Amino acid sequence: MDTPQAANENQLDRLRSLAERFDCITETDLMLLAKVTALTVESWRKRGTGPAYILLGNRYLYPRSAVSRYLESITRERQSLGKEALL
Questions:
Q1: b/e for 18-41, b at 16 or more Cβ within 10 A?
Q2: With 32 labelled, which of 13, 66, 77, 81 sits at a CA distance of 20 to 30 A?
Q3: What pLDDT is stored for residue 1 in this prediction?
Q4: Is the separation of the CB atoms in 41 and 74 below 8 Å?
Q5: Number of helices (H) and strands (E), helices first, in the chain?
Q6: Is 34 helix (H, G, I), strand (E, B) or coil?
Q7: What is the pLDDT of residue 5?
Q8: Backbone dihedral angles phi then psi of residue 9, each to the nearest 5 degrees
Q9: Where exactly are the structural domains of the chain?
Q10: Distance separating the N- and C-terminal Cα atoms of the chain
Q11: CA-to-CA distance for 41 and 57, rounded, in angstroms?
Q12: Which has the closest alpha carbon to 27: 62, 58, 57?
């Protein structure tokens, strides 16, 4: 007999598999990628600052292309300081 935790893990695996078919990641995967909480991801959505998302029923999916664009938009270029700036 499956434990409740095993059932939840099976459901999460199935959700990930379905999301992959549509070239998306789950909200949980986004949280793992960014190392943030569910509240942070919710705040991004409310403020419109995070990656674009799809709301399907009561689940949020994030298209991989949208996550990639978001990562590019927050990428910081490394600035090289000249000798004068170091002194």
A1: ebeeeebbbbebbeeebeeeeeeb
A2: 77
A3: 57
A4: no
A5: 5, 3
A6: helix
A7: 82
A8: -65, -40
A9: 4-86
A10: 68
A11: 17
A12: 62
CB 62 within 8 A of CB 52: yes
Q: Which amino acid is at 15?
A: L
pLDDT value of residue 2: 66
Question: Backbone phi, then psi, for 59, in 5-degree steps?
Answer: -115, 145
51, 70 Cβ separation under 8 angstroms: yes
Question: Rounded to whole angstroms, what are the CA distances from 3 to 8, 13, 53?
Answer: 9, 15, 32
Calpha distance 22→19 (Å, rounded): 5
What pLDDT sits at residue 85?
66
Between CA 52 and CA 24 the distance in angstroms is 11
The answer to whether 34 and 51 have CB atoms below 8 angstroms apart is no
Q: pLDDT below 50 — which residues of the chain?
A: none
